[in-house]
Design brief:
This protein is mostly beta strands. It contains 2 helices and 9 strands. It has a 9-stranded mixed β-sheet with strand order 1-2-3-4-5-6-7-8-9, with no helix packed on it. A hairpin with a 5-residue loop joins strand 1 and strand 2. The radius of gyration is 18 Å and the shape is elongated.
Length: 202
């Protein structure tokens, strides 16, 4: 049976039922199964009932990718730590301003998309995510804690476009670490002339 019984439960918690698809991505809603009948990819953007997290989601232990865009969610519950195989969490265009401590309990998380939310600072728990490579804070109001992103051991792709940033800790850039940082559409002042890395976009 695999995870199909959980999908039935999940469908009762959504505004619209989802179906199995061959390939889930940012445009295609539904769920994707592996050869063992386990849900690995899930797109439930725009259809969470009453703007709440469906509890059945946290029972999908083999989930690797989940898209929760545009659901007016205002938090991430601690139960997110149940998804030990989660590699990519896309929660853009919601109303979130903080992360739970349990975000660092996701051993496989590589990509975290938090664009178009209400963040004003970088949560310190991100530093403890063991495999996090990509972090997206585009279109927020992040002004504090930017040094955490550069001090994080594994983060290599940082997206901070359109946050109203006027000061950035360029001195923390490590020339021996390949990092891509997008700072476009901000209000940066005193940009150093000789920056130690090439992957900077203003």
């Amino acid at each position: 049976m695999g995870d199909l019984h959980i999908i039935k439960e999940l469908n009762t918690q959504l505004d619209r039922s989802i179906k199995q698809v061959k390939k889930v991505n940012w445009l295609v809603k539904g769920y994707q199964l592996n050869e063992f009948g386990r849900v690995t990819h899930l797109n439930i953007s725009k259809i969470c009932r009453k703007f709440n997290w469906p509890s059945a989601l946290f029972k999908l232990e083999y989930l690797e990718f989940v898209d929760l865009q545009e659901n007016k969610l205002d938090h991430i519950p601690n139960e997110i730590a149940n998804l030990k195989r989660l590699k990519c969490l896309d929660i853009r265009q919601n109303q979130i301003n903080s992360l739970p401590n349990s975000i660092s309990d996701l051993p496989a998380l590589e990509k975290l998309y938090l664009g178009d939310n209400n963040f004003t600072k970088v949560p310190t728990d991100l530093i403890s995510c063991p495999k996090l490579r990509v972090i997206d804070f585009s279109n927020n109001q992040v002004l504090k804690g930017l040094h955490h992103l550069l001090n994080a051991r594994t983060i290599t792709h940082i997206y901070l476009r359109n946050n109203g940033i006027n000061s950035f800790p360029f001195h923390l850039l490590d020339p021996n670490k390949q990092v891509e940082v997008n700072l476009m559409e901000n209000f940066l002042e005193n940009i150093p002339e000789n920056l130690p890395i090439k992957g900077l976009y203003f």
